[in-house]
Amino acid sequence: MNNPVLNAVFGGLLRMTEALMASAPTLLVGLAVAAILRFYLGANGTRRLFGGDSLRALPQSWAVGMLLPVCSIGVLPILIEMRRAKLKAGALSAFALAAPLFNPLSLLYGVTLSRPYVILMFAVGSLLVVTLVGMFWDRYSAAREREDDSQALASEKDPTDIGVRRLFAVIGYMCRQLVGPVGVWTLVAALGVGLLACFLPWGALQHSINRDDWWAPARMAGVAIPAYATPMLAMSQLGMMFQHANSPGAAFILLVIGAGVNLGTIGWLARHFGNRSVAVWFTCLMVIVVGIAYALNRPLIPPGVTPSDHTHAFDIYTNPIHFLDSNVGAFAREKLAEKFGPVEQICLAIFAAMGLAGAALRLLDRTKGDGTESVSAGSESVDTPPQSTMLGYDRIVSSQVVGGTMIIGLIVISVVMCYSFYPAPEECMEEIRLIRAEAMSAALSGDTEHAKFWVPHWDQWSRRAEVGAFLRRGTITPYQRMQGFLLRKKLDLFEHELEHEHDDPFEIRGFVDDVMATDTRWRTAYREPYGSSDEEVVVNNVVIPSDQDL
Question: Where does the record locate the signal sequence feature (predicted)?
Fold first, then answer.
């Protein structure tokens, strides 16, 4: 059975499910940040956080977005609160584009993918994009006021409850938003991923983003608009593009448009600022991004890398189903199981409880005849301190202080998570030892599918070891970088050989021995004296200079 329509629909639904699972952690963070803005900072505090109407609003919104660990779906609840605080359209645009692109985790990961100045240029390029687009939109667009479908824009009242009552109000707000506008726009964003998979058959992008193809950036612009990518996914795809010497301009478009924009974001902006205004904004955005992409395309070509005639970096945007057969159900379960890690399981369990609570609360609001009273329960603004005072050691802390502490706490947690996500090299090598055993034993026994499952994990953990060493030692020696590059190159070649499914076991044994030898040299590079950065090292009669000599 190979019905093209059923194939497209089934593949699109599978990609939509994967996108929803991938967005769960950052969407939860976005809901929490939006609740803090609503109930603790208030409208005035939110305006101050994002620069208000001053000239620094655009770069300040860009900087705040760089610090918060959210994706293009996770920014939606924050955009709703920024809109409620009467921030300018340019500030919303700057935050919406910057927040999904970079965060501490993805920036550190990007250092292992390409030369550091390339990642720095991409970050500066994103600042240039959001500044130009924001200034253009603020100056030339006529944003029209529209009533939000769930937010009480007409009501500027905020709750003045403190303590446990305000915490319950925060939880109730998050639940209502999940089953309200945020949930709707999240589904719209996931729908774009599904439509993209419906129209792009399996393997359609493997030969379309080559370095010497003049149309590669323009082709990527069309793919990136409905696509959805988390910051880490966009960074990993960026690394694969540089590893295979694909088009750097297409990589820039993928990062800015693919990770920064989705159909949900565009739809929400059109809902509140008008179709014509958003059309002008989006046209300006695409012209600037594509122009910068073509300007960067030739200068950022990595030297010494032979272009590959194909890449698998963009297979995630195409239909995962090659053809329908009796094993398609098992294949779908296996694909979803790969994405359904512990973090996703916890977040989806929380969302299930929040969804039930939010549906019950919205039903209760309808029976009362007003869905905004339970959110805006007080008669004063959060900027107005309550009249009652506490005696003894109890003190009423300003809501702005509490909200600011929460925002700073989120940023600190994201920095701490860097050390958790990127463990010490010794811990990474222990994980790689288990992965290596699984991959090599599967390859030698002929189970190529099992081996192909573990090889990308091997690649990822080698990068995490490199970042973990940089975080703890403050430097990575040239020898360590070289051995890491060689290991990942061997793993990439090994994965390609597994796809060919060689029948000769001695040929597979040769590939396994080659990878194992490279892995041994890589592990040795992180042990003294190779891991030292302040002395010369002699390896096989070749002098590896210290960092100070380079």
Answer: none
